[in-house]
Amino acid sequence: MSYAVKEIFKTLQGEGAQMGRVAVFCRFAGCNLWSGREMDREKSICTFCDTDFVGTDGTQGGRYATADALADAIEAEWAGPSPQRYVVLTGGEPLLQVDEALVMALHARGFQIGVETNGTQAAPAGLDWICVSPKADAEIVQTSGHELKLVYPQEKAMPGQFEHLAFDHFFLQPMDSPRAAANLEAAITYCIDNPRWRLSLQSHKMIGIR
């Protein structure tokens, strides 16, 4: 299959359990919960996304004809040998496109592979780190992984609904909105009262990196 990619860039992971780790981010175009167009936001399943995943016009964006071609582009962005090669496959919704061929191609180039998904698509075999971020009114198909990161608060997606799922880590991430300060305070309070949950902050926004 071919892959539609919005952008590829090297930075630090800003969120969750891998925060601070150097990674190449490969952002796939498209999502099944929002078109990415502002005119559709309010009637979409996910109404709070803060990411531009429309089109293929970002840094190293484009349509890659093969898994090897995309893996080569990701490797070029890493720009150098390292025993700690790490790539984050994100979106949009990456699992609309990520397949075992791409996983194999990235592993062949020495990458550990993380994915950030809304959980509505099953993950292919071989991923090294699965982070699921549930959205209200969207059925979760990927019910196991390494990290569940819930944007908080969502009226119809409260933390207790997900505690039975098979994840190693549970994070609350305050929703970035005009109520960001109140959302942060609410998330802190919830984590203090429910120690299974840990606070995740978008540190990349705080320090001004992508």
Looking at this protein, list some descriptive labels.
globular; 9 strands; 210 residues; alpha/beta; TIM Barrel
Verbal overview:
The structure is a single chain. The chain has 210 residues and is α/β, with parallel strands linked by helices. The chain has a single domain, classed as Alpha-Beta Barrel (TIM Barrel), CATH 3.20.20. The chain is 19% helix and 27% strand. The chain is built from 4 helices and 9 strands. It has helices at 67-78, 100-108, 180-193, 203-207; strands at residues 3-12, 22-28, 62-64, 86-90, 112-117, 129-132, 144-152, 166-174, 197-199. A 9-stranded mixed β-sheet has the order 3-1-2-4-5-6-7-8-9. Strand 4, helix 2 and strand 5 (112-117) form a beta-alpha-beta unit. Helix 1 packs across helix 2 (100-108). The longest helix is centred in the C-terminal third of the chain and has 14 residues, at 180-193. It is globular, with a radius of gyration of 17 Å.
Helices and strands, with pairings:
Layout: E1 3-12, E2 22-28, E3 62-64, H1 67-78, E4 86-90, H2 100-108, E5 112-117, E6 129-132, E7 144-152, E8 166-174, H3 180-193, E9 197-199, H4 203-207
